[in-house]
Design goal:
By secondary structure, the protein is mainly beta. It has one helix and eleven strands, in the order αβββββββββββ. It is globular and about 45 Å long.
Length: about 160
């Protein structure tokens, strides 16, 4: 049976996402891998209406600015920092769009709604590990470029194919 024909679980509330990310991060049993080429990512579980990914970041590694799935099936997300430090950059719309920067350390959780455009980067001197929970499960991310004229779509990355 096609997954398109299966009933969809209702989206999880943002506070539930935050709780799940903190719980999964605190009870993590899988060891991450660190790779020099780019951050390492692995889907570690999926449940009703959500899935979780474990990511490992060496210093300097990060994502492009992106959303979580776009218009067809957007996903809200919660990111729990398991170890190390990460910096989140969130696009602030307006006449002069810019980026808001937030530093996250081990034990902190950041939540983004299903329309937020953001990026994550390890700007510290040491490795970092994070646990990401998406609701619904993440199928794709659209990446963006930001300059003085605003935000422009760049490409689409598909789960399981491009990361």
């Amino acid at each position: 049976m096609s997954s398109d024909l299966l009933p969809q679980s209702p989206p999880l509330a943002v506070d539930r996402l935050e709780s799940l990310a903190a719980f999964y991060a605190a009870n993590l049993t899988l060891s991450p891998r660190f790779t020099k080429g780019s951050r390492w990512a692995r889907r570690v579980l999926s449940g009703p209406g959500h899935e979780a990914w474990l990511l490992a970041w060496l210093p300097g590694q990060g994502t492009d600015l992106h959303d979580h799935g776009g218009v067809a099936r957007p996903a809200a997300a919660a990111v729990a920092v398991v170890s190390g430090r990460l910096t989140e950059y969130t696009v602030q719309p307006g006449d002069f769009p810019g980026l808001r920067r937030r530093h996250l350390t081990a034990g902190e959780v950041a939540v983004v709604d299903d329309r937020t455009v953001h990026g994550m980067r390890n700007v510290s001197d040491g490795p970092a590990v994070s646990l990401h929970v998406y609701a619904p499960g993440l199928e794709a991310m659209r990446t963006y470029l930001l300059d003085e004229t605003g935000l422009a779509p760049s490409r689409i990355l598909r789960a399981g194919e491009d990361w």
